[in-house]
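Assemble and predict.
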Amino acid sequence: MNKKVSTIRKQVDSQLLATASLENLYRIFTVPEAPNTTLGAIDKEISLNLMGFLTDRIVAREKSLPAIEQDFQVSKVPEVPQFVSDYTDFVMQKLVAHSVHTAAPGFIGHMATPLPYFMLPLSRIMVALNQNLVKIETSKAFTPLERQVLGMLHHLIFQQSDEFYEENLHNSKKALGTFCSGGTIANITALWVARNQMFKAQPGFDGLAKAGLPAALIHYGYKKAVILVSERGHYSLGKAADVLGIGRNNVVSIDTDSKFKIDLKALRQKCEQLKSEGAAIIAMIGIAGATETGHVDPLEEMAQIAEEFGAHFHVDAAWGGPTLLSNTHKHILKGIERADSVTIDAHKQLYVPQGAGMVVFKEASLLGAVEHHAEYILRAGSKDLGQYSLEGSRPGMAMLVHAAFHIIGRHGYQILIDQNIEKARVFADLIKQHPEFELITEPELSILNYRYVPSHIQMALKKANPKLQSDVNALLDKVTKRMQKQQRAAGKTFVSRTRFSVFKYNKEPISVFRVVLANPMTTVETLRAILVEQSNLAKRDGTQKILNEIRELLELVP
Amino acid sequence: MNKKVSTIRKQVDSQLLATASLENLYRIFTVPEAPNTTLGAIDKEISLNLMGFLTDRIVAREKSLPAIEQDFQVSKVPEVPQFVSDYTDFVMQKLVAHSVHTAAPGFIGHMATPLPYFMLPLSRIMVALNQNLVKIETSKAFTPLERQVLGMLHHLIFQQSDEFYEENLHNSKKALGTFCSGGTIANITALWVARNQMFKAQPGFDGLAKAGLPAALIHYGYKKAVILVSERGHYSLGKAADVLGIGRNNVVSIDTDSKFKIDLKALRQKCEQLKSEGAAIIAMIGIAGATETGHVDPLEEMAQIAEEFGAHFHVDAAWGGPTLLSNTHKHILKGIERADSVTIDAHKQLYVPQGAGMVVFKEASLLGAVEHHAEYILRAGSKDLGQYSLEGSRPGMAMLVHAAFHIIGRHGYQILIDQNIEKARVFADLIKQHPEFELITEPELSILNYRYVPSHIQMALKKANPKLQSDVNALLDKVTKRMQKQQRAAGKTFVSRTRFSVFKYNKEPISVFRVVLANPMTTVETLRAILVEQSNLAKRDGTQKILNEIRELLELVP
């Protein structure tokens, strides 16, 4: 009896059923989740209190990955349908509980931002409409909207005249950029365009798009094709070189100076050397907000060098691009207006959900280098955006960028960006004043790196010879790695870790904590608390043992 | 006074404000949209009645694109924040109203499907969590979930042993596939793997990934590298060849037979010819559900030929893959289990929102050909999925596929797929019985093509000489194009149009209506009504004039 009642309740609750029949299937398309069902209640909970949902529903303390994997072991598609309420219970307990609270004020380790509330109902509108931006026939007004968003970004960077935008914004033969799932696809698109543009069609040659890269090199008489970027370039650039057939070895890495910016002299010398070796310099990439250190390359000077050597100048501003929305700090990106193309991620400092990347091109005709058509869509002369995109079917994410531009406005973004940078500077000061930490990179935007090194070790390390420095740093790397893992496992706060060459340590790579400040809810108190937590973690036996080894090496009295 | 009250109301309504201040900005991250605000009300409306929302809020009758563009003309990011309620009004009137009701039962022109209700609240959970699947540190349980979804798809296709999945499903050194934004990225990934795998590292050669395609051809002693697919291959394959540096000219197009399937004899001959010319056959692509006609290539036989010539065998099952969930029809895809890789889109016949593509590889080690690492994430030995993906940051869309697999189940999908195919057959019969239409492709899955040709013209055309057939078909193309545009503009129903070679008309390309049946709410009555609507459209003067021209050409008495 009880069982029967519960079964009937489940059917009512879930509006679905555990037997597949035609009639039942129609119901999942026609009968909504009632507010009193499990899933309906969760939906309401999120709508009323997003932060509460994330804080309450995600279990802070880390469950080991192998333990989580136990709940995702079945390798066959289930035969029989499951009740929505049962499935929702599973999702809440096994998935949501063990996901990552990336919007927590103390989660300052990756480029994850909290979402403004309006993003949730607007996302529902977007999902409900389920438009496909590849073509007008499945997106209509979304296509002009996307073009406008790209135009706004274009204007933010390149500041062209009103006439320019009047002519190009909705021009079926032009495109100011493409919207995509993220910065990696944006960077690949920029380099794809640069590659094809360099090896374009000529009498007797079909162009690289048709003839391929090997034939292009032969026709144009080059020995190889290369891309230049500083050693701080994002890993997507190596991936792009692989995908595009250029090869990772042909991503020429340029040294950085003491401020982690590209060494202009080394860049110029390398260009001259490559030219004399018969290499085609497809593109030079300036970084506006390095993934690991947040630094911005000298864009103005790079633009000059790129122009001299006839290379496409791409700026990877996936992280730092929105700095242009701040009149206080936009000068840091000076020279970006001379780029041929720029990548910006909206799911980073534009506070849009995951899956929103953009690349814009200064010249409205450049994307013609990768234009493509089909018979059933993307016909020449149509306004289908799919003619210029690497992806095919795409959701209407541009709507959320459009919304953010309007609801937050440039004024609002300026406050957010200024806050982020100010907070990074404050945190850098806290670290410098703290007797147990060493600041490794001064923040230029809102990213910085540091590590745990008690001041007496710092002082002795400074005076040590290079060999000894290297040995001590190897041990400090262990400390950094250990502490970062422990902090993550504790689940209260999170910093990430990375490893790169540091000028003051003979350009040897060292491991560091990496901090990205982009959450408006992160306060100075949050930052102080993180240093306290880390200081306590360092008192654990394992770390103390390594620190004692270091003291011995440096001949410090324990 | 009134103005002041209205202003205050707006502030209360929208929970935001038209002046950017720090305090106000915090509110957009901390104060939800109340249910009685404009946006809150819309959110509720969608939750309670998705179909009603789409039907009521989207204006059926087409507004011209230039007119829509007027609302998306501004090319500068707005300076001042806008009220959420004002912005919502704009979105509803200017964007939603003029988007496309792709879930309407009469919208049968593209691969757009309606969404089951549970997708909406589950999407909200996904957006709220805002996980980034590129790495464990920003996705945790989502990573094993995604691996499971890929494993389920792998099992559906390749049916490997339990031991195989136990060993590989959560193995940090292996990957059964990658999840991406759509079929195009999936196809590019498959061909990227095939290309790198063919030109892998050897003593004296770093491998294509590092050395690039030109060096790879030289090292391996090939004159060129090619990809083979029938003339019905999706346009993403040409794009893939461009991106990958292979070149569009090196996508070798193979003729199709009278049933729109690849001509196996022609395929084998071409392989032999290419081999003798010193070409490397990187991959051969079988189509399982051609974009335009829905046909499935003879996969078993293609697998055999691919094996003989040492080519990677990729199957593009973006559309047709889910047919494997139907025990009634899965035999149509016989041989797919011999593929090296398979593309399936979840946003097509798996009824998941836009932005969900997958590619799976039979061998769990194949994706190693495109493996990549970075210092701050994707470290070797980690379980970060970003090590194998073309994209970087990615949303947790796999959750929605996981949900659909569980809530719909294989039984549920079987009903959906069987319904789609059955409906296509019924529609084909209606067209064949109708005196005014000509069926051009018999449906194998749930896609078909037809055109408007009154039966007396059809009969005369059949007897005409090739030259006359060609002339008449050119005029009929005009009729098809004209009617399709008129039907779209009327906004009641929608079929798409395409153009391809047809065996019975001397393999000359003709324009046809294209129909994709995937909406469970589309009934036989909907289909009958579409034929009635088209028959009425054909009575318009412009079309009658062309038909009279045709009658004159064919010497038919009007």
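The longest helix of chain B spans residues 409-433.
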